[in-house]
Amino acid sequence: MAIKPILKMGNPILLEIAEKVQEFNSPELEGLIEDMQDTMVSLNGAGLAAPQIGISLQLVIFGVEVNTRYPEAEEIPFTILINPEITPLSDEVEDGWEGCLSVPGLRGIVPRFTKLRYQGYDQYGNAIDRIVEGFHARVVQHECDHLEGILYPMRIEDFSAFGYTEALFPDQEYTD
Ligand code: NI
To answer: According to the model, what pLDDT value does residue 140 have?
Structure first.
């Protein structure tokens, strides 16, 4: 178990297409997931993709607990998602603020599908198949984009809504 350094935007690994995980339920996979969990928790992140710690595999983790610091946040169950596939269930998109541990200190408005189905596997190879919307759908799209070499600034359409967190939200306390 270890907290790993996060690769920052500009590192070419973040632009790679990640490889599929071939072997489930292995000590290597378990160790990688523990490192990702430790890293995400230490940085208060809502999600983390394996390429962000330099491992170009199709593995993301995410989850948001409702707490008093973010009472407006929707709860997302902690999820380990491997070899994911996303199917949008509507053409509807909505704008929302995003940040990324690989793009520290910044926030931007990103359009995302409002409703989708995601499928994949947990670390033991059990199937995951969920239909979600809203913030949960946004987080899944953001994390799975990392597996295709896409960072959220590449999705921004209105660059007047892209900036430093403390300048955009001077009255609020935010972390990356
Ligand atoms: Ni990110």
So the answer is: 98
